[in-house]
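Sat 14:20. Reprocessing the chain from the morning session after the first attempt stalled halfway. Input below, unchanged.
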Amino acid sequence: MNINNGVDTTVTWQTAEWDTRPGGQAQYSTNGLTCRVAGLYLIEAVWTWAANTNGRRAVKITKNAGSAGAVLARADNANAWDNITTCTGTRRLAAGDELRLLVTQDSGAVLTGGQAMFDLRGRLTMTYLRAAP
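Finished this time. Tokens:
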């Protein structure tokens, strides 16, 4: 996926590796994940970047609306040579909450991201831990 310089970009997903379909409803969409059962979740994102010696990279997991939504987890790389960015958090989600992954970079040019690197590629996950108090 091509990521423009200096702009938050919502990752568009091509496929789901695994979707438990709670209540028969899909959690996966091309924009991200939809929580179907309220509770406490472990949320994680990994994003890979093409090699580039300029600028920084960042990822944000947001809830319920692109860059204007609540940021649930964020990670910034301080150096351009960090080609893998990860973030994680444990968060309470309500049924219907939508998670999206936003990525940004400031290399000065379009930069490719999400491609396979070692045994990793871009991903967004949410794992149900328990009912929320």
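The CA atoms of residues 44 and 59 lie 11 Å apart.
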